Amino acid sequence: MSSFTAPVLIYSLLAPILIVLGGAVIGVMIEAFASRKIRPVLQLSVTIGTLVLAFAQVWHIRHQETASAAMGSAVVDGAGVLMQGAILFIAILGVFLIADQENFTVIAAAVPGSEEETQSIQSGEQLTEVYPLTLFAVAGMMLFPVSTDLITLFVALEMLSLPLYLMAGLSRRRRLMSQEAALKYFLLGAFSSAFFLFGAAYLYGYAGTVSLSGIGAAITAANGNTVFLLIGIAFLSVGLLFKIGAVPFHAWTPDVYQGAPTPITAFMAAATKIAAFGALLRIFYVGFENAYWDWRPLITVIAIITMLFGSVVAIAQRDIKRMLAYSSIAHAGFLLAGVLALSKAGLDASIFYLIAYGVATLGAFGVVTLVRDSSGEITDLNRWAGLGKRSPFVATLFATFLLAFAGIPLTSGFIGKFSIFSAAYENGNKSVVIVGVLSSAIAAYFYIRVIVLMFFSDPVEDGTSVIIPSFLTRLSIVTAFAITIFLGLFPAPLLNFISSTAIFIR
To answer: Could you tell me if 99 and 473 are in contact, meaning their C-beta atoms sit under 8 angstroms apart?
Structure first.
């Protein structure tokens, strides 16, 4: 009979995740015991304090070297620390947007249009459950890119996904669309989780272990059944490609982005992509590195189709949130070029791109929350005509984020695309680079079309106005704008920091 071995956990390295989980539990206790009047301030203070404290801890451990933080289940290496720091920073800016409670319903369970819902809105109360839900999602996102075995990866995947399913259905207006978005996200997310588990089972059958390093060693030894390996890689990839919104696993993206409360869309679009790509990079760089020629053709085709599909379909969109959703699909294709590079340069470029794209995405959706009429946000592109004359500053902010998405020089997007395409080209993925440049040119058309609509069209008196946001919303948008410009003009400090820090421990 084998004896029980007590787990060895390095709590100093797991501290950022534990701090976020502790803050989430405190948030649940506040919901249970604090009075309704003080809940909003308490929850916001606890959430921001938790995220700042966790970020400080990540910064503190960035130079510590270790092979494992949890007996081979999680490793806190340079790349993992960078991903965790990026997720926490994006989450702080996202919570600033979430603090504008105008976007959220008061009682999520109320039937849309019912008297109960009307009375809850008239009461002036605020939905505060969203804060602990955000922290639980952030904890899952932080665990996802540092997980080094398939079981921990699955736990982290569910931990980040389940709160997002709920948060997508909390929109104050267009309640039916919001609930439909939450249901679609939940059902398709359940299917993707099943594919992930199915792939994990086949990989275990192939390698006899669920650790990424063990799978990599089994591939090198080539002793297992190759069919199991290929099926495992394929099904595991489906679960991950769903989270990043790659074609053909993208169907949820436009509907969820449109139906969810815009601050949740901003948080989800930025932070989830960092977490999902962090996990994707670790799995393919560490676990599947020696099977590169087996999975490269499939990922190449998916990257090419994703870039082209997202860029072309975005042209036909008349809703600003759906347009940004298809834009995010195209960016998922660009980021897959970093996975295909399978090099240190590819890893560095992917992390820089994720940070630059995440910040710009948060800022863009933040601006969307400001354009409203008496019934709430205006997402119809036609009604954004003349925004530059109504509010030049807000239109300039949005135009800057769009130019960053397009990869125009002097913005962070240009540096990100140049870096990631250079890394892909150096590794021989010329077809991906050619299609990426072509897709960027196509995407530039619909970004610039919106800019022309805002600045060179006359405003129509249809009740459209730009509201004066709260201080926290202003802080979030302006910070995103400043970082987008700074990384376009002075990218070297961040690129050098990433280059000296980013490494996967195998």
So the answer is: yes
The position carrying tokens 């992930």 is 196
1 within some domain? no
CA torsion, points 466, 468, 471, 477, in degrees to nearest 10?
20
Which is it for the CA torsion 496, 502, 503, 505, positive or negative? positive
How much is the mean pLDDT over the chain?
87
Q: Is the CB of residue 102 less than 8 Å from the CB of residue 127?
A: no
Helix, strand, coil share of the chain (percent; to 5)? 75, 5, 25
Which tokens go with 52? 């700042």
Residue written as token pair 């309704």: 36
pLDDT at 306: 93
Closest CA relative to residue 319, chosen from 410, 394, 384: 384
pLDDT at 236: 92
Whether the bond into 248 is cis, omega within 30 of 0: yes
Residue of 123, 193, 122, 137 lying closest to 168 (CA atoms): 137
Range of the domain at 386: 11-501
Q: How far apart are CA 410 and CA 102, in angstroms?
A: 34
Phi first, then psi: give them for residue 372, nearest 5 degrees.
-140, 165
Burial class from Cβ neighbours inside 10 Å (0-12, 13-18, 19+) for residue 2 reads exposed
CA nearest neighbour of 331 among 400, 267, 417, 258? 417
User: pLDDT tens digit string along 470-499?
Assistant: 888 889 999 999 999 999 999 999 999 988
Q: Does residue 506 lie in a domain region? A: no
Specify the pLDDT at position 133. 93
Does residue 3 sit within a domain? no
pLDDT of residue 480: 94
Instruction: List, for the chain, all residue ranges whose pLDDT scores fall below the cut of 50.
Output: none
Determine the pLDDT at residue 109. Answer: 66
